[in-house]
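Appendix B. Chain record.
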Amino acid sequence: GNAPPGVDPEAFSWFQAVDADHSGYISVKELKQALVNSNWSTFNDETCLLMINMFDKTRSGRIDVYGFSALLRFIQQWKNLFQQYDRDQSGSISFSELQQAFSQMGYNLSPQFSQLLLARYAQRSSNPSIQLDRFIQICMQLQSTTDAFREKDTGLVGNVRLSYEDFLTMVVTRMM
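Structure tokens predicted for this chain:
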């Protein structure tokens, strides 16, 4: 069949290939099998779930062809940004590249925080670096939590006072 109106024909044909069970929807499992990093590792479950949830308008845990098409555009934008910050073209982002990326994106984060992210999200090695999937995940989470913080920081002073439950509510509604 032909692509539905408003869906890129290439996205439609990829949707059909990824929709392994021919349900007309893409699940987290199907998405994970379709996306790979530059080192040929599949995207991790957390990132796939975040992205499905972002484009799942029905809250069914899966996306239709329209959501998939939008998701592919979203991934391409992140991939372009990732390649821009991957200065040495290694296919992954090192500590110094991550620091530069944060700075250029307008985040004033300490080297210790970047090191913490590397420890949490990089593959274990003597020279840890971030793959595309984790870069997308980190950026989505940073954006989401920054938005939540800004809602509370109405005076834009960089500090907020929160109750423990307000903090948990911010995390749960944006991260899970």
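Further analysis of this model is presented in Appendix C.
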